Amino acid sequence: MTVIFSKKCEYGMQAVLYLAAYMEKGVIRAEDIASSLKVPKEFVSKILQSLTASGIVYSKKGKFGGFSIAKDPAQIRLIDIVAAIDGLEMFNSCVIGFPHCSPETPCPVHDKWGELRTLAYNMLTEETLDNFKDKTINKIRTI
Amino acid sequence: MTVIFSKKCEYGMQAVLYLAAYMEKGVIRAEDIASSLKVPKEFVSKILQSLTASGIVYSKKGKFGGFSIAKDPAQIRLIDIVAAIDGLEMFNSCVIGFPHCSPETPCPVHDKWGELRTLAYNMLTEETLDNFKDKTINKIRTI
DNA sequence: ACATAATCAGATTATTTTGTCCGAATAAAT
DNA sequence: ATTTATTCGGACAAAATAATCTGATTATGT
User: Fold this and answer.
1) What is the pLDDT of residue B53?
2) pTM value surpassing 0.80
3) What is the ipTM of this complex?
4) Any CB–CB contact under 8 A between A99 and chain B?
5) pLDDT tens track for A68-127
6) Is B85 exposed, middle or buried (CB count within 10 Å of its CB: 0-12, 13-18, 19+)?
7) Which protein residues have their Cβ less than 7 angstroms from some atom of strand C?
8) Cα-flanking dihedrals φ and ψ of residue B57, to 5°?
9) Nucleotides of D under 7 A from a protein CB
10) Residue range A7-142, CATH number
11) N or C: which end of chain B has fewer CB within 10 A?
């Protein structure tokens, strides 16, 4: 199966966007996030824990605990979430896995794919959560 | 781990590009392909079998058998290899897996990512093997 | 006919990814 | 203090992907 991001990364991005859409609610339980997004509760909970360790998400333990965005949404880029969960190797490795693919000895698709990869990287880097906030609020609340 | 293509698909593309680079040799043994590309022989052999079933690759059984490109390289697009191995769902599904993501109720990254995805799809569709042949011959033969 | 060397097909194993479970720690309310 | 409800941490299980093995079939040359 061809895929861009791992499930972990997908769910992580969904959850963080969700939290950004509901910032005024304070912390939100993993269960609520999971049921809204229709993703496995235990799994998204684990992912949120690791995003907490990365400083992107804040967690409050105990009764009435839950998760929220840890900092100003304008400071959180999508690439930060990808980096925290999946790492950024995909932006530095050959898309078809050719041995010795490098600018000096490129694989046949090196240049073309390199352009696309750069566009993708730039998009993930330029877009911060607050850029999405309006859309996210409008759309996430419909799900 | 974030990834674009599965290993199957990566190896499949590598192998087909390799065969395109050495068309004048006739059929080439799976073992030679595997050792040149530094990929598992049995695995790439399996992949070539399925590409044979898809009509992209020709196989000759028995002694002095092996694999070669089945048709004019100008007729083989990279997207055909992806379609045969991984399928094309990635070009029709939400990149962050949002429930109900569609043009009417898009996920927050729907538009931006959609552009990139279209660029990727077009690249894979427009490029046929013969477009790569010169580069491939020059580069593959150095590995 | 026989030996050799390859693809082919199916079963099997290994690894990675995805998902679940359980119990401990934490915090709030009574 | 006790109950309740949550995160947290580690182990565990299931599923998907990647890789290997074995034997059958096919073709070639002697």
Assistant:
1) 97
2) yes
3) 0.89
4) yes
5) 999 999 999 999 999 999 999 988 888 888 877 888 888 888 888 888 888 889 989 998
6) buried
7) A 6-8, 11, 39-43, 46, 60-65; B 1, 29-31, 42, 45-46, 48-49, 52-53, 59-67
8) -115, 145
9) 4-10, 16-22, 25-29
10) 1.10.10.10
11) N
